[in-house]
Structure formats: C-alpha cells, structure tokens
C-alpha cells in the first residue's frame, strides 16, 4: 500500500486524505482504506467530520466513512463547535452534526463559530449570532473578526474597535487596524504605527512600532526600522530591535535571525541555542 496512491495528505484526527486516479478517499493510521477513492475532492477531518465534493456539490462524511450529509451544497465549511456554515443558491446557513439544517440559508456571509459566536452578514453589513442562533449583534458593521478571549474586532466607517460577547461596544471604533486579543492584549494601528491595548481599552503600548505580533507565552515580537525585538506583558522592551526576523516564543524559546543565520533566545533575551539549518 505504501506506493499505492497518486497523492496523500497529512493525518488529522487519525485520518488522511488520499488520491487515486483523480479521485479522493481516506485511510486511517493503520493504513486501512476507510473511504474508497470516489470523491472529486475532500477536506481534513475536523470534529469527526470531513467535507467532500462530488459533481460540484459539497457534503460530509464521518469517521466511519458514512455519508452523513449528501453532496448538495455549493460550499461547505469545516465543523466548528458542533456546527458548519453551508451555502446554497448564493446564501449561507448552518447545519449540525446530524446534518440537520438548523439555520436556513439566508445570510450573504456566515463564518465558523468561535467561542460560541459566529459572524454573519446581510446586505453588506455584519453582525453575530450565538450557538442558539439568536442574533446577539445586529448586522450593522462594515466588517468583523472572530471572537477571541471574549472580544471581537469590528469595523465601522473605516475605523476598528471592539465588542464583547454581550454585543456591547467596549472600545470605540477609532483605530486604522486591529488584531485579535491574545493573553489580554490586542495589537492596534494608528497613523501607520502599531501598539497595544488591554481589555479595558487602555493604550498600554503607544503606537510606535512598524509591525507587531500577538503575545505568546507573555512576549510579543515588535519591529522598528526593519529590525525585530520583543516586549513583555509589562510593556517593557526585554529585547532591543536588532534581529532581521523573529518568531513567537514557544516553550520558553524564540527563533531569531541575524546576518542570514538562525538561532534561539530565551525569555531573558540571551542566546542559548544556535541552529544554522533553520531556513
């Protein structure tokens, strides 16, 4: 079986997509073909289900290879928090894990659920619904982002702000751009420069950087004059902007690049490991 397929994908939730003679199916980690290669395309398994395509229509299979939703939708998203956005005749709605259409296809846009909420759009305006499919925020914004740590960035009149899970505008729309909250802080842009706010909307780092990353393990990469460094959650610059590139901290270390070579620093900013093979 090792060389049996024309193409293979990565394993996800114990299954991998495989291709043979232009058709797609799935194998498990034992190499057993749980779904024969009969679909025109297929996605990764997510929450126990995978999107499959046949004759231009999308449906879903489960981990037993059973077709739980027939291929009848023009577009279908992965399951997220037990629901999936699907499209039919140019409109979007939601189905559950039983394949039941719990929200009719009536929206112009429907995002995946995150933290119990999903962005939806009608007549070019965006709002949010919850997992009870109640419209908790009316469709009044020009754009939206998904909820993260209880807040979502929203756009109105070309300015970004934030709402909470009650739909309350907790930070006015005043920024040129805005990122998601991560570890209690969100990156915001004003006049071409980036800084950070906290969940109270207080500007804890002024907008002075050319670029910034999300906080991870208490640190965030920041860029100034084409060089990268790091700040901590006390907004102290623990590593000056001296690297040519910089990655997020992971398990206490961050990969950094200088003069074409990669190495690692610890949370104090000291070099600890060098790895010239990292590209």
Question: What percent of the residues sit in helical stretches (DSSP H or I)?
Answer: under 10%
Structural class: mainly beta
Mean pLDDT: 94
Please outline the major beta sheet.
4 strands, antiparallel
Number of helices: 0
Radius of gyration in whole Å, from Cα? Answer: 23 Å
Strand order of the largest sheet: 1-2-3-4
Low-confidence stretches: none
Strand coverage percent: over 45%
Specify the oligomeric state.
single chain
Structural description of this entry:
The structure is a single chain. With 279 residues, this protein is mainly β. Helix content is 0%, strand content 62%. It is built from no helices and 32 strands. The strands form 8 sheets. Strands 1-2-3-4 form a 4-stranded antiparallel sheet, with no helix packed on it. It is flat. The protein starts with 6 loop residues before the first strand and ends in a 5-residue tail after the last strand. 32% of the residues are buried.
Give a quick summary of the entry:
This protein has no helices and 32 strands. It has strands at 7-12, 15-20, 23-28, 33-39, 41-42, 49-54, 57-62, 67-73, 75-76, 83-88, 91-96, 101-107, 109-110, 117-122, 125-130, 135-141, 143-144, 151-156, 159-164, 169-175, 177-182, 185-190, 193-198, 203-209, 211-212, 219-224, 227-232, 237-243, 245-246, 253-258, 261-266, 271-274.
